[in-house]
Amino acid sequence: MDVRVYPGPDQVCSILSEWLTLVETRYQEGGFPNHLHFQIVGRDAMAIRTSIAKSSYLGRRLWGEPHLTTPCPVHLGRWSGLLAPNANACGCGGVGWLR
Ligand SMILES: [Zn+2]
C-alpha cells in the first residue's frame, strides 16, 4: 500500500517560499508573456512573501488551529498585536477571535 506523507507546516512554508523565489526569478529574467497571473505574482513576490510571514491567520491555520468564527467582544475580530493591553484578559490573545 502506498502511503502518502504530507509536508508539515515548516515544509509548507519552505515550499511556498521556494516557489515564490522561482516565480520572482523567472519574472526578473523576462517574465511569463502568456501568463498574466504569474507576471503579477513575480512582480509582487516580495509583498506576498512579507504578507504571508506577517499573517497571524496563516500561521495559526498552518499549525492546526481551525478557522475561528467567534469574534472577541473586545477586539472584534481584529488582530491587535501580541503586546496589546489586556490581550490575554479577553481570551483571544490579541488575535481578535475566541477559540
Ligand atoms: Zn480580544
Description:
The chain is mainly alpha-helical and 99 residues long. It has two domains: 1-54, no CATH class; 68-99, no CATH class. The chain is 45% helix and 4% strand. It is built from four helices and two strands; from the N terminus they run H-H-H-H-E-E. It has a two-stranded antiparallel sheet. The chain is extended. The relative contact order is 0.11. Residues 72, 74-75, 90, 92 line the site of zinc ion.
The main sheet comes to:
2 strands, antiparallel
Helix content: 40-55%
Q: What Rg is obtained from the alpha carbons, in whole angstroms?
A: 18 Å
Unreliable runs: none
Strand content: under 5%
What small ligands are held by the chains? Answer: zinc ion
Quaternary organization: single chain
The main sheet orders its strands as 1-2
What order do the helices and strands follow? HHHHEE
Mean pLDDT: 89
What's the total number of strands?
2
Number of helices, where a helix is a run of at least 4 consecutive DSSP H or I residues: 4
Number of domains: 2
What are the main properties of this structure?
binds zinc ion; 4 helices; 2 domains; 4% strand; 2 strands; two-stranded antiparallel ribbon; 99 residues; mainly alpha; single chain; 45% helix
SSE topology sketch:
Elements: H1 9-28, H2 36-43, H3 45-54, H4 56-62, E1 70-71, E2 97-98
Antiparallel strand pairs: 1-2
Helix pairs in contact: 1-2, 1-3
Bound molecules: zinc ion (ZN).
Residues 72, 74-75, 90, 92 line the site of zinc ion.
